[in-house]
Specification:
Shape: globular
CATH class: Mainly Alpha
Distance between the termini: 30 Å
Order of helices and strands: HEEHHHHHHHHHHHH
Number of domains: 1
CATH superfamily: MetI-like
Helix content: 55-70%
CATH topology: MetI-like fold
Oligomer: single chain
Number of helices: 13
Length: about 290
């Protein structure tokens, strides 16, 4: 006879969920709904003149060559940040997982960058790459590399990618380390007894068992690169030089708060939200097939 667990409290589960539901409604659904509504309006900055224009803002944004260039730049930036944040984090997690003495100290040091504010992280890396006195820029100059992120768009993009990825490495490190520590050591010992090399054990046992963690971090890091890198870019380059580091989230902010084009800024925010949702759906639809739970 099958037994069913009956929870006696009917109201308590809803009360426990209420704070999270309220936060989601207030800080996600309500702003998203406002952005969608404002994207269909043409209004002056003070809101005295408001006109419903339907999808005209979206049409104007998508026909703008500067926006298309920003879109392409954002995908390149997001790919760079995601790769540079995940690969070193996995390498560091594998190395720390082998440490027997002082492991706690290593973990603490590697997690510290995640606690640093984005603006501070950006300012730190800007100082390191400062053309005249930067610790990293100086040896580059000795090697004959003409390095100047203030006037060279490629150099500026490299700085913001490194700063944004460095900020996220600690977060990825924690999850990779937790995933590594959950893998049964008996599997690795059995493979070692069978003669499998360390590299082969990693690619045939460790990495497949880490696939749920890797998939989760892939979704999180892509979302981070699209949305949460505004602070780093604003602190380091302000989208320059010549808008070479202006990504979608920064352009939406600039057009809305600085240029005061609220309709097109809202349309850009909606397009950005659709892109991120679409990328997440694609990852769940195709990438998750390779995940071994």
């Amino acid at each position: 006879m099958e037994r069913k667990v009956v929870y006696p409290q009917k109201v308590l589960p809803y009360l426990l969920l209420a704070p999270q539901i309220a936060i989601t409604l207030v800080f996600f659904f309500w702003p998203a709904g406002q952005a969608i509504w404002m994207s269909t309006l043409l209004q002056d900055p003070l809101g005295f003149s408001v006109q419903f224009v339907g999808l005209e803002n979206f049409e104007a944004v998508l026909k703008d060559t500067a926006y298309v260039a920003t879109l392409q730049r954002t995908f390149l930036f997001s790919f760079g940040v995601t790769a540079l944040a995940m690969i070193p984090a996995l390498l560091l997690a594998v190395m720390v997982d082998r440490v027997v003495r002082g492991a706690t100290a290593y973990r603490t040091v590697l997690v510290v960058p995640y606690a640093i504010a984005p603006a501070v992280a950006g300012a730190l890396w800007l100082f390191l790459f400062q053309p005249s006195i930067g610790t990293i820029a100086y040896p580059l100059r000795l090697l004959g590399i003409d390095w100047n992120p203030r006037i060279d768009g490629t150099d500026a993009m490299i700085v913001v990618v490194i700063a944004s990825a460095w900020k996220q490495i600690g977060y990825n490190f924690l999850f990779f380390l937790a995933g590594l520590q959950s893998i049964p050591k008996s599997l690795l010992e059995a493979a070692a007894i069978d003669g499998a090399s360390e590299v082969r054990r990693f690619w045939t046992i460790v990495f497949p068992l880490l696939s749920p963690t890797t998939f989760f971090l892939l979704v999180i890091n892509i979302t981070y690169a699209f949305f949460d890198t505004f602070g780093v870019i604003h602190a380091v380059t302000q989208g320059g030089p010549g808008k070479s580091t202006e990504v979608l989230i920064y352009k939406a902010w600039y057009d809305g708060l600085i240029a005061q084009d609220l309709g097109r800024s809202s349309a850009q925010a909606v397009i950005l939200m659709i892109i991120v949702i679409g990328l997440t759906v694609i990852q769940f639809r195709y990438v998750e097939r390779r995940v071994h739970y």
